[in-house]
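DATA SHEET
Item: assembly model
Revision: 1
Owner: S.N.
Input lines:
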Amino acid sequence: MTELVNGKGLNLIPKTDVKQTLKDFKSDQEVRWCPGCGDYAILAAVQSFLPELGLKRENIVFVSGIGCSSRFPYYLNTYGFHSIHGRAPAIATGLAASRPDLSVWVITGDGDALSIGGNHLIHALRRNVNLNILLFNNRIYGLTKGQYSPTSEVGKITKSTPMGSLDKPFNPISLAIGAEASFVARTIDSDRKHLQAVLREATAHRGTSLVEIYQNCNIFNDNAFEPLKDPELRDDITLRLEHDQPIVSTSKAVVRAANGGIEVVARDSVSEDQILVHDAHHPDPSLAFALSRLDEPAFEHVPIGIFRQVDRPAYDVLMAEQLEQAASAKGPGDLSELLLGGDTWRIG
Amino acid sequence: MTKQVQQLDRVIIRFAGDSGDGMQLTGDRFTAGTAEFGNDLSTLPNFPAEIRAPAGTLPGVSSFQLHFADHDILTPGDAPNVLVAMNPAALKANLGDLPRGADIIANTDEFTKRNLQKVGYTGNPLEDDSLAEWRVHAVPLTSLTVKALEGFDLSKKDAERSKNMFALGLLSWLYHRPTEHTITFLEQKFAKKPEIAKANIAAFQAGWNFGETTESFSVSYEIKPAKLAPGVYRNISGNQALAYGLIAASVQAKLPLFLGSYPITPASDILHELSKHKKFGVRTFQAEDEIAGVGAALGAAFGGALGVTTTSGPGVVLKGETVGLAVMTELPLILVDVQRAGPSTGMPTKTEQTDLLMAMFGRNGESPVPIVAPSSPSDCFDAAIEAARIAVKYRTPVYLLSDGYLANGSEPWRLPEVSDLPDISTEFAVKTDDEEFLPYKRDTETLARAWAVPGTPGLEHRIGGIEKAEGSGNISYDPNNHDLMVRLRQAKIDGIDVPDLEVDDVHDGTKVLVLGWGSTYGPIAAAVRRIRKAGGKVAQAHLRHLNPLPANVGEVLKSYDKVLLPEINLGQLALLLRAKFLVDIISYNRVRGLPFKAEELAGVIQDVIEK
């Protein structure tokens, strides 16, 4: 934990000496998600995780867009900004770029981040401002009552697609890696321990971290991720991504395929040294991208964990450095000098 | 040969050529020399949106008009006394604006059969009598330039490129402009290519010497320096003044400046200018789109910065939802709209005043936003500070409506003393022991809420686009609360302190008031002068604050028999004034992408007086 507090992702953010608890991060607002919503689990996980960071509470800001998940900031006793549909990454970028002393979180959903806000998301990722983006993916529009979303599987029957949806979904992890995000991870609402472990790494990362959280919408898309939660199935189909560890589930393993790509095979069909060892820190995103492509809608195997975690200068730090460079090279700004710059002449 | 020197009180020159001929640079340098000499001046660059339209064609013509005088002037002038035409297209495109007797300096080298045909001339107008009503000076500018540069290690094409400097030299001789600054400028501009610098200087000097020796020009002209108010002056364009105004506002507000912007004509120069001033702590963020530009500015404002976004009409359309969020969250934000001809892409490089109603109403819900409009290029400086003052004091987004004419036009600017600039600083909220923090509790005088920035202990709170309960700011769907909040937001904007409308009325019994807003100030004032000079009576008033309007506007409007309102739109302010004051405004509207001409407005005013 000491290491975390001194981690690069947080080293510009003021720490507190006061011991914090989950209660410190609960706001006085009544939580109003549907009973049974996966958001409750994520909220509880975040509220119980934040004290461990030891940050001054006033230096934490949650920014959200529009959607069920975007109500999140109201329930945390930090600074919060519930903004407009899709625009949270843009608003958070302005805040984080001008205030490197803040821990800025973006709470978004699959519709918010990948439909209306797709442009802002990819540009935030490429820019690498110091943001933690939590993308709650339930593969459905909840707040507008059940239309298919950009992560819904093809053929999804919803109110707006009675004969099945036609468009191919985004894979948020592939999208983020394609945008060369410096930190990309996936976790699941029901696994608090894993979720918090991923958040721990995401907050320690200086730059934009994207965390996709599989989240269950029990009203409009119930059990979308059930195989990953089923005690009989989950260990078999979950391919745990841990840096420097072989990529395996209880019965499966990821190996190099004959065609140069990667594939999932029965674990007992290969020797240990044939199994691919995960390298989240590799500067080339190709392998991380290939891992993200292992998903398939039938949930026969799903990689979970940190796909990619590379060091890249954070935009806010670079921006602050340019200001410092300009001031040290030219001296601090002087308004009179500015106005008198250029060709002047005197009358009278 | 001793040449005659004639005294003039004012001159309007228009440099016109192909987009690639360097006419904007030529105009800029002539302006710099003129400013240095001490004339009053006003400029009007006019260029196509295409970076390089096909050479020699009418759409490719770029021009720069400069009006300079020995007295104070208000506009870049209606009709040029001198047209420098670098090719047949430039002649043809501009001839219609030339009054009888004006001088035409034409580059004969470009009047080839092919170039003439390109623009539909069947004969050469320089050789037949079709230009008889003007004084034509046929000068082979290109070949004279090439000849002057014979000793240089340059290709013919490179040598030809300096023809604009030859023309500048000739005009500098003709109007007794100082030369030192142009030479220094060329040395600096081409510091890395000394051969090019030398060639341009040689071409410039050859142009000057040509004037001195040729018989084509028997007279040169002197325009004495203007007697302007004492002070230190510099020439400034509207975009540059606006950028400086934003920096000054940041200094005077003691807030770091954050610009979120997406490139768009004619606003991009503000982004370019501000990005040069990082030593003032100015953060410039070139966003992925217009929406992110304003979003980032609002995010920075939440964090305690002076948040600014700069754009033009099509960008404003995209920013609307974020402006609404700024209204709802009651955060300071400056929205600069450098208006251009619309709708849609319209004419990006041409000016218009057609975004007023969009700034007023272009959002969902009851969403009032203050509007400030500068009246001249240098006034963009003060207007930017005023917009910031309102934004910071009242915690509201503010529209600053400039336009293409102000943005690119320039004039001498008497520099303000920094110590005279207003203090527009504010206090962030801090935790007090005795009171619970209520994010939407209002100042009783301004109705502004507290600005509580992240990092302040004890003030953790949540804001957003959903309706707020009065005081607490918690989400509320209560009908009466919504009605109250709608009225409070409106009352806050209505209650902004704006100075009374001043009326310039020098006679007793004046019956006609001519009212304007924004960039029409110069042409209207020049027209009013003409009317008065001819013995007519007319009053003038100019609105800087469009929302809220000054408290005395209704009274002013009602104190004249007739109110004339010229606008470069189809009557947007007239619509607002008629609705609010039930006064039958007489509108005069032209939307040609160009500023009004003083003569044109004088005619309109005279008609209204006589009717």
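QC remark: The radius of gyration of chain B is 27 Å.
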